[in-house]
Amino acid sequence: MNLPDAPVAGEGFFVTHFFTVRNQEKSKDFYVRILGGKVIKPENPCYIKLANSWIVLNSGGGPTPDKPEVILETPPNLEQNEQFPQSTCRGHLGLLQTMARQRRAISH
Q1: How far are the Cα atoms of 74, 99, 101 from residue 106, in angstroms, in the given order?
Q2: Which domains does the chain have, with CATH numbers?
Q3: Are 19 and 58 in contact (CB under 8 A)?
Q4: What is the DSSP letter of 33?
Q5: Does position 41 have pLDDT exceeding 80, yes or no?
Q6: What is the spatial distance between Cα 54 and Cα 9, in angstroms, rounded to a whole number?
Q7: Per-residue model confidence as pLDDT tens digits over 48-101
Q8: Cβ pair 16, 46 in contact under 8 A
Q9: What is the helix, strand, coil percentage profile of the chain, to 5?
Q10: Cβ(63)–Cβ(70) under 8 Å?
Q11: More exposed terminus of the chain, fewer Cβ within 10 Å: N or C?
């Protein structure tokens, strides 16, 4: 890992977002190409610098000897969401799509 590229807050703080994903390459492409992040470590887990934050993409795993009953994995049914109402998810998707269009317009 190239530590000079690591996000370090000059003041205040930075945030780490940890995501368990099925496809690290596809997820990495989204955070780098669409949102403008920078890959610090490419895989297992993948670290991405994005503004004042880390994005950590992990494929999951387990169980481990110390936690034989714990398995980290993505939800079996990605169409079923028990955490957020669909209207909230659609609103966030619309915002991300707008950001991506603006980013492409600026870079061309």
Answers
A1: 34, 11, 9
A2: 12-61+83-107 (3.10.180.10)
A3: yes
A4: I
A5: yes
A6: 11
A7: 998 888 899 999 888 889 888 888 888 777 676 566 555 555 666 777 777 777
A8: no
A9: 35, 25, 45
A10: yes
A11: C
